[in-house]
């Protein structure tokens, strides 16, 4: 017998509508590449996003078209997050750290029609613009006063002029929640980069889960500074989470050095941040050299690679900041696990807690995981057995864009598909997962498997070693 509840599609535009109605006065603060600090409210974000949706239509962008960005974390990039996906098109965030040849391959494979880019990336765009086949319009994400006086790219359009010419009278369309919303490419382990095509449904469900107390634990009382780039797996979902919970957002732009980050942390009273270990290494080195402390920062999410134990200790013991270890990948939207404590841990010593914090954590609701041996058989959750990590769930990849590489899933005896992550992991009896290596990086010595992560952590424990990589 069917239930009798309303059917309302889970659309990304609904996150923005909610933010405008219930958190309209909340701020988004951006350090822009033009050099200034820009402030706008969620109410202004919503209006500018509607203007951009109209501007996209004027540029000929239709439902399903891919719209690319090469941009830092900032308010204009966030406006595109909502305007592109909300209008039914697909946001494709390109990684500016790639070689121009790789950018050309990915843009052509995605069949991007329009490219929006920050001023700092003009040299990169000039290096490949004449070679891309499908991009017909190039938009510089700035105002008229800062537009390039000359460029090798003909017919550059100005972001703010597009907005000025558009109305904010726009009604977000309703469509199937399984419609594609955004596209990110992953380098993977072999062959060309593959596209992971997220849906509105997968993104909204991921947003709900990411905001949970035992996940990223965000609220309207938080000030969030995502160091993780918006061109990398949607900045781990934080631009969406902030709209749902009403948290203040602070975007660092291109300023990812220790001083620039510390200045924003202090001036904007940041409470939560997220990024990869290499960025935190630079920030902590700057703070240590200048004998600085955090005044409002309480926790940071660290993922992308295993957080060195020495870094966790530094955050906790020197700066009184809690580290939330997390795990994910492009194919998992990205959040798969988060390392929140259970009640049994609360009375333990800090030394014992470090042992828990070193793990990538428990699966958040919506994600199922297991480890398997070389024969594909399930391995026990005893904290000792080590095998390949497999995951499944509503925001886990089912196929790559254009079916590159064929079916990536493995099927169990019950007919369920599982995504093989390529990570080697252990899971303990409490469900805490710990990555021990990538399957391609495992070192075998004397008949034993040795994780390269273990070797890196041992090396980094030495005071003369800043970073280590096997």
CATH class of the largest domain reads Alpha Beta
- Shape estimate: globular
% residues in beta strands: 15-25%
Query: Under the CATH scheme, which architecture of the largest domain would be assigned?
Result: 3-Layer(aba) Sandwich
User: Mean of the pLDDT scores?
Assistant: 94
- Summing up helix and strand content along with how strands pair, one would put the structural category as alpha/beta
Distance between the termini: 57 Å
Helix content: 25-40%
How many alpha or pi helices?
13
Number of domain units: 2
Provide the CATH superfamily of the largest domain.
Answer: ANL, N-terminal domain
Q: Can you list the strand order of the major beta sheet?
A: 2-1-11-10-12-13-14-15-16
Explain how this protein is built.
The protein is of the alpha/beta class. It folds into two domains: 12-24 and 40-200, Rossmann fold (3-Layer(aba) Sandwich); 256-460, Rossmann fold, CATH 3.40.50.12780. Helices cover 29% and strands 23% of the residues. The chain is built from 13 helices and 23 strands. It has helices spanning 12-22, 42-58, 75-86, 100-110, 122-128, 159-164, 200-210, 238-245, 258-267, 277-289, 309-319, 350-357, 452-460, and strands at 27-31, 37-41, 66-70, 90-93, 112-117, 137-140, 157-158, 180-186, 194-199, 223-226, 248-251, 272-275, 299-302, 322-328, 335-338, 362-363, 368-372, 387-392, 410-411, 417-427, 433-438, 443-445, 448-450. A hairpin with a 5-residue loop joins strand 20 (417-427) and strand 21. Helix 1 (12-22) runs antiparallel to helix 2, helix 2 crosses helix 3 and helix 7 (200-210) crosses helix 8 (238-245). The longest helix has 17 residues, at 42-58. Mean pLDDT is 94; it is low at 444-449.
């Amino acid at each position: 017998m069917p239930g009798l509840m309303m059917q309302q599609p889970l659309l990304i535009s609904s996150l923005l509508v909610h933010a405008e109605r219930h958190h309209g006065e909340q701020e988004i603060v951006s350090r822009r590449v033009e050099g200034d600090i820009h402030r706008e409210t969620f109410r202004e974000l919503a209006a500018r996003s509607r203007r951009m949706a109209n501007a996209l239509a004027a540029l000929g962008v239709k439902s399903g078209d891919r719209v690319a960005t090469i941009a830092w974390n900032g308010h204009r990039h966030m406006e595109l997050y909502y305007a592109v996906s909300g209008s039914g098109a697909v946001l494709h965030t390109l990684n500016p750290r790639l070689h121009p040849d790789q950018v050309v391959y990915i843009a052509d494979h995605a069949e991007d029609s329009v490219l929006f880019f920050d001023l700092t990336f003009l040299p990169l765009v000039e290096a490949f613009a004449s070679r891309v086949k499908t991009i017909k319009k190039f938009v510089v994400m700035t105002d008229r006063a800062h537009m390039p006086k000359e460029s090798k790219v003909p017919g550059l359009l100005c972001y703010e002029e597009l907005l000025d010419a558009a109305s904010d009278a726009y009604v977000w369309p309703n469509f199937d929640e399984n419609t594609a919303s955004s596209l990110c490419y992953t380098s993977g382990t072999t062959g060309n980069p593959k596209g992971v095509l997220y849906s509105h449904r997968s993104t909204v469900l991921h947003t709900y889960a990411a905001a949970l107390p035992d996940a990223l634990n965000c609220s309207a009382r938080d000030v969030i500074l995502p160091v993780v780039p918006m061109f990398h797996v949607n900045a781990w979902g934080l631009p969406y989470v902030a709209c749902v919970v009403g948290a203040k957002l602070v975007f660092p732009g291109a300023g990812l050095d220790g001083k620039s980050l510390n200045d924003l942390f202090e001036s904007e009273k940041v409470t939560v941040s997220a990024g990869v270990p290499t960025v935190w290494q630079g920030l902590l080195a700057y703070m240590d050299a200048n004998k600085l402390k955090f005044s409002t920062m309480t926790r940071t999410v660290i993922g992308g690679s295993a957080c060195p134990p020495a870094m966790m200790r530094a955050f906790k013991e020197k700066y009184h900041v809690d580290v939330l270890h997390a795990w994910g990948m492009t194919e998992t939207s990205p959040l798969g696990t988060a390392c929140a404590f259970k009640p049994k841990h609360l009375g333990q010593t800090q030394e014992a807690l470090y042992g828990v914090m070193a793990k990538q954590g428990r699966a958040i609701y919506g994600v199922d995981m297991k480890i398997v041996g070389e024969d594909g058989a399930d391995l026990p959750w005893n904290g000792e057995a080590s095998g390949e990590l497999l995951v499944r769930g509503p925001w886990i990849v089912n196929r790559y864009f254009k079916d590159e590489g064929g079916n990536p899933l493995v099927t169990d005896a019950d007919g369920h598909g599982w995504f093989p992550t390529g990570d080697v992991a252990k899971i303990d009896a409490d469900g805490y997962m710990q990555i021990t290596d990538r399957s391609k990086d495992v070192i075998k010595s004397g008949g034993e498997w040795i994780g390269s992560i273990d070797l890196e952590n041992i090396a980094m424990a030495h005071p003369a070693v800043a970073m280590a990589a096997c």
